[in-house]
Amino acid sequence: MHIPGLTNLQPLGSGGFATVYRAHQVQLGRDVAVKIDNRVLGNERDRRRFLREAHAAARLSGHPNVVAVHDANITPQGMPYIVMELCTGGSLHDVLKQNGPLPAERVRQLGMQLADALAAAHAEGVLHRDIKPANILVDRYGTAKLADFGLAALLDAAGGSTVTRDALSPSYAPPEAFAMAAPTVTGDVYALAATLYDLLAGKPPRPVPWPIASFDHLGEVLRSPVPQVPGVPDEFHQILVRALHPDVSARTPTAAQLRDELRGAVQVAPPAPVVRAPVQRPPKTLPGPKKRWPVIAAAVVVAVAVGVGVWFAIPDGGGGATPTGGASTSGAAQKAADEKLPPPFLKACQTGYCVAEPACFRGMVSIGGQVTTARKAASCSDEHFWEAFAGEWFSGKIPKVDSDELLTAPEVAGVCTKAAMKANTRPTVDTSTWQLGVVGFEEGDRNYFLCMASPEEGGELTTSAFGSGG
């Protein structure tokens, strides 16, 4: 790998999507760190966006608790990279592994410094999106610094052509992130508070088991009480509990307020109680295809369980289907009838099931490599990256794997094909170079998958390639 102006690149470590190198900057005669993302930014829009966010991150370099950004660019292969100061003390994740939890006063001091850095970033319009101990580095003088501001923006930039939320760290991410909510200031506040708690306890406040057993269980974990760490003063604990509130409206609203509370400058009100919202499920018996509201069940369960104000409903028709002619239908007969219905979004076609109407998606949610759900666009005239063209019921549970691996599953491989995509493409559209994807959904006690497609070169779409209408 050749980076202009740098020599002697030596790998320091790698994660899911990037590799960090130690390198020598010839012009200034100093060692630096280079983080190279292995995802390719395939179009000019994404490249401009990355550089714009990297420039914004560079403006934060004067803050003593932000890792300084020296340069940012894109390799000839299309991979973005950032050149930054070399922090030889490792990360706070390393410190935790080597030394265990830190004293409460030390964590409080760290919290004030890091919250101040985060407040400065927010004042510049920059969100971090992925605060955790591994993204807080320690320089040779022992100063803790927030890292990865610039590369955090890649989650959305690369999401146009692959998936979104790729690097979500489940145990530090705010609950609303699991429902595909856009990143916000309060999400960063939650992640910083979760990080401070980890430094005190040696584990996150709400460890999220991965892969998740069910979305019901995920909802319970995300709303569970935050245990008090022995030896941590009550006031400090209450500050963290408020910043970790699962409901955005009850959470500490800004990093500046969190900083001031840690300084003792703001009186901390007791945190609002967490209301355990019951998990709402669609009825097991549903109206026919024309009356069924498209339900992304995974997103429904998470959204309702964590209380982020997202609601999907079954339209008029009551709790179950009403048989034609008013005759009663036995449970067995109704189940048999339901099994003949196509999955949501789909209708019977010559090639199997194809989309009944255009179904367009803003992005897929991927956590730890597993695609968990997708966010549907209100209309295909709205900006979107993926479009469904076919699908099928899935026997058993959807495997907890990424989209590429799910495409190779026997039940999926025969349905989500280039031939099926071509057969369902509208005559005026050329999808010959589009890439395939797939995402699984829950529908009551059944599972199904949708075959997705997206232009290989990336970029946002505002028209539909499949189904009738636009």
UniProtKB/TrEMBL annotation:
The chain crosses the membrane at residues 293-314. SMART domains: S_TKc. Keywords: ATP-binding, Kinase, Membrane, Nucleotide-binding, Serine/threonine-protein kinase, Transferase, Transmembrane, Transmembrane helix. Its EC number is 2.7.11.1. ATP binds at K35. GO terms for molecular function: ATP binding; protein serine/threonine kinase activity. SUPFAM superfamilies: Protein kinase-like (PK-like) (SSF56112). It holds the Pfam family Pkinase. Residues 6-263 form the Protein kinase domain. This is non-specific serine/threonine protein kinase.
